[in-house]
Amino acid sequence: MRTEDSLPDVRDVLAAVATGLWRWDNARGVVTIDAEAARLLGLPEEAAVLPETVVRARFHPVDWNEINGVVSLALTEGTLAEVRLRVMDGEGRVLRTVRSRSKPERIGPERRDVLLTGTLQEVSEPPAGARAAVTGDWRRSREAFLLDAGRALAEARSTDEVLRVAAGLSMPGFSPDGLAVFGVEGERLTVVGHHGQNNGDEEPFLDMTLETSYPAADVVRTGRAVYLSSPDEYRERYPLTWPLASRFDRQSWAFLPLVAGGRTIGAWMAAFTYRVYFTPDERSVLTTVARMLAQALSRAGDAESARELTDGLQRTMLPTLGPSVAGMSVAARYIPTGGGLQVGGDWYDMIPLPGAAHGEETGGTQRYAFVIGDVQGHDIRAAGLMGQLRIALRAYAAEGHRPDAVLARATRFLSGIMTSRIYGSSGGRDKGEDGALPVDEYADLRFATCLYIEADPSTGVLEVARAGHPDPVIRMPDGTVLLRPTTGGLPLGIDPDADYPITRIVLEPGETIMLCTDGLIETGGHDFATGFDRVRAVMERPGPPAAGEADGQLHDPLSGDGLEDLADRLVQAVHGPSSYHRPGPLADRREDDIAVLLMHRDLHATGGPVTAGRRTVVTIRQDEGERISEARQQLRAVMHDWADEDQVDSAVLLLSELLTNVLVHTDGDGLLAAELLGPPGSRRLRVEVSDPSDDLPHKRAPGELASSGRGLVLLDLLADAWGVDPQGSGKCIWFEMAEHEPGEKGEKGEDAEDAEDAVPELDEAALDRLAEAAENL
Q: Which of 384, 475, 538, 584 is the S-S candidate for 512 at Cβ 3.0 to 4.6 Å?
């Protein structure tokens, strides 16, 4: 092997084969060329660093636009970018065709800019009237274009989005300058949308029959594409409509059928400002795009029809709150679960009731029914059942029935719908050998939960009937939030003979009651406990009423727009960004429909003095011993910020003792009324337990082994004051406690300390056992 021979210099080799070098720096916007590359570009034959705009002006604009697609494909595949470019002179004439082969690489701190380094070499032009065969990188670039176009069209969800995507399509080698999509309505052609023309240019085409001698009409009528390569060809084939097209100064046109589901739904026009001969490769690309465009338009049309139907259904089924209520503010929100259906099984309603309040003569205050409910499921059937149930409830309420009667009729109504679904109108469904219906016949049975409130705004009296629905939530004037237990029955549709007892609540001035479906509490992976904590934290803001600077009057933070703001904050806590920062303990976020109904009694509704305190009332029936635990929880909630936790325990113990005595020693129900008044640090708690028995309690001295007789002893030791007040029917036993800091002596001094040492500490489980023992007795 002879080592003294060496290869010639690379520059000499490139010059010998008439190949130039160039480097395109996208970040700096400059192109570096050698002398041969400058000659090929029709520039002075010398090396130079030129602005990108100077080099771009030497190439045919269509070829230059194609570079981006070819370079993107090469970067993705890690290959060379090869493209043919027509070099133009200053007069717009084609001087020669060059082939560029370059290696692209990403540069810059974020790797967004591109550096191209490669060669330029002159190649022979294709014969006149024909375009060069698409091979190699050109074919791959068109395949990449079709993939991108298909993905973009598949993601479009409306006709406008489809048209925007179609307008942005840059086909490799031949990009249309004007686009139009034609539809069909009966026997007439319509313009669905267009791009590249001015607004109003479509008017001559809006009322064109399918028999008109126009390319788009021919395409729709025959289902075959029409390609027009020159104005002369257009004028010759369609002389009647040529004047309509000539004013756009286009040189070539392609009209392709839009076929979806075997039916021609319209036509697509692609117009070019330069001559296109529509080679087989170009026709193949246009045909493929037309097919994808037709499918996208068909999907968008179906989706828009479904949305229109859904919106109409939503407008029909979702109520709007009625006229303003004197002395009370009302706000509501409905948020459907994720997905295309914008209605579900949740609903709320506000119903003006006939006549005056119960017990008043005609001419009394207007009463209202406030309803919230949730039909099982999130589909169109749940929405349909919701609409039927809502109409039925309105009808029963309009007849003047009490809340318990309204829900009793509603459960029979829904049970009847479910029964007719199983057995049909003739009751002739086939049964199995054991006489039971097949299991799948019960698969789509639905039930509904509901909370129905009859309200008298003038007095704040609320009569509540509940059918398996979450209890209402009360926000007191000082911001304290309580879950208000109510007596309830089974969900609607389960038992046609179910009863729904009425719970009476008084909404004091400044208080707010919230009714909601379980979606507000449990959406976001929460169980009921953690979900309620989230809701409570939102409802506690803003705090208590503040005195105005000008008049010194207490200003209600939830009056005016305050209630609307609270409704928005409740929804944001569940669906806003913060819900993702504080997820619940469950892995599944469990999206659900949300309905919220807020009622706020104005702080100055009665016109009398405003008392910014806390109050709760609970009724314990004789057969509801387990609800003593709820009463204890209510008292703890009322005293949630009490200074001395030992006093809280003492108050809970005394309450449990009094309620247990009512259930054990009387035949009636117990009524708890707890009220806390005064500024923090010096507040006073008063607890009253009433029963219908006239027998007064007597203080006894029980022995060490006695199982009873210590109730009044505990009252005497732990309460600051207590007493027994006879009533017209029955009696009321009450006790009071004054707030003091931990370690301080209360009003009873040393006696209270001795009492606390003498009474063993009872946890919640021990108190529950005490209530259970009372129930067994």
A: 475
Bridge partners, 772 (sequence order): none
Q: Where are the beta strands (DSSP E) in 353-389?
A: 368-375
Q: How far apart are CA 19 and CA 23, in angstroms?
A: 14
Tokens of 588: 């599944």
- Give the pLDDT of residue 491: 95
Residue that the structure tokens 């240019």 belong to: 201
Distances (CA, A) of 503 to 248, 462, 466, 697, 730: 76, 8, 9, 28, 20
pTM of full prediction above 0.90: no
* Cα 275 from Cα 75, distance rounded (Å): 31
**Cα gap 221→185, rounded to integer Å:** 13
Q: How many CA atoms lie within 13 A of 253 on its CB side?
A: 27
Cβ-based neighbours of 176, under 8 Å, separated by 6 or more: 196, 254, 270, 271, 272
Exposed, middle or buried by CB within 10 Å (0-12, 13-18, 19+), for 34?
Answer: buried
- HEC string of 624-682 equals CHHHHHHHHHHHHHHCCCCCCHHHHHHHHHHHHHHHHHHHHHCCCCEEEEEEEECCCCC
pLDDT band for position 602 (50/70/90)?
Answer: confident
Question: Chain-centre distance of CA 315, in angstroms?
Answer: 17
Cα–Cα dist 343/386, whole Å = 10
The one-letter amino acid at 519: G
Distance CA 633, CA 681 (A): 22
- Length in residues, the chain: 777
Alpha helices in 88-207 (DSSP H): 136-155, 159-167
| Distance separating alpha carbons of residues 685 and 675, to the nearest angstrom | 6
Rounded to whole angstroms, the Cα distance separating 241 from 236 reads 11
The Cα–Cα gap between 358 and 371 comes to: 19
Q: Of 341, 254, 327, nearest to 293 (Cα)?
A: 254
Structure tokens at 530: 């953690």
Through-space distance between the first and last CA atoms of the chain, rounded to whole angstroms: 116
For residue 19, the cross-strand partners are: 121
**Mean of the pLDDT values across residues 366-395?**
88
Residues 87 and 41: beta-carbon distance below 8 Å = yes
